[in-house]
Specification:
The protein has helices at 2-10, 12-31, 36-68, 243-248; strands at 76-87, 93-103, 109-119, 126-131, 139-154, 157-174, 179-188, 201-207, 213-219, 224-228, 233-235, 253-254, 260-266, 272-282. It has 283 residues and is of the alpha+beta class. The protein has 2 domains: 2-68; 76-282, Sandwich (Immunoglobulin-like), CATH 2.60.40. The strands form 3 sheets. A 7-stranded mixed sheet has the order 4-7-2-1-9-13-12, with no helix packed on it. Strand 12 (253-254) and strand 13 (260-266) form a beta hairpin. Helix 2 runs antiparallel to helix 3 (36-68). It is globular. The chain crosses the membrane at residues 39-57.
Amino acid sequence: MLQKLKTVVTSNVTALLFASASAITATTGWLGRLRTASIYAVCGLISVYALAWVFFLSRDTLMVRTVAAGNSKYPVRYKKVDHDWRITETGDFYGRYSFECQNVSKSNLSVIPFDEIWINSYEKVDISTRVSVDEKKFSIRESRQSLYGFALKLLSRALNVQAISWSQIVDPPIPPQDSIKYEVTISTPRTEIDAFSKEGALAGIPTNIPTEEAKLSLSAPPGFAFEFLDPIIVVDGSGNRDTQAEQQTGGPGLNPQRTLVTWQLRSPKTGKRYLFRYRLERI
């Protein structure tokens, strides 16, 4: 019931209706064509809608942070995740995330729980979701996204982390033990400009959902090469380090030209961020 209410409250159609009602109410109220009571009634409905929208946004954010801290059990697992990223010379980020997600619960599953990535401060973000080209059984009926920021201290540095999270509504529901393949594409302009600085930038693989295998490939812009700056670090959703996981995990590798970073993790710990720091230098 709560999920159905959320679907209605957060839909674009509902937002458009209330935006139109707000505009009409403000205009006609200013012209004096509606009674004061009518204006109050519409304003009251708009307030209820706004409060409900804030409630669901806060709830989704809390769910993501709780899972990132390892305090929630998921009905799904990723059999395979591929992160394919590239950076432009101007610091723009383009990422394609490919998932093979399995329903490990005992019931049909129509909502894939929220997952998220951390990224540097952004002014604009474009997100799109689609099923993979070889997917024949399922479709993504709706994709939910949440954007929020929080302060984090990592490696003695104060960071303003921007999080992008998403959840998929699948049609038809996924039967127990069955899987869906889908992709999320994200682009953010000028979020990776620190990669060209002396201090460099952080990149890595999040494991909010139990994962069997995760791969990352990060491509440099033409005329640049990667340089690793520190050993890898593994942190939870609050930035606390897991030194045991760090010691047990091999770091990313480079091709001979140092233009491509690759990293593969098998059965990584859930609720962690596997990170490395790097910079780009002109060649």
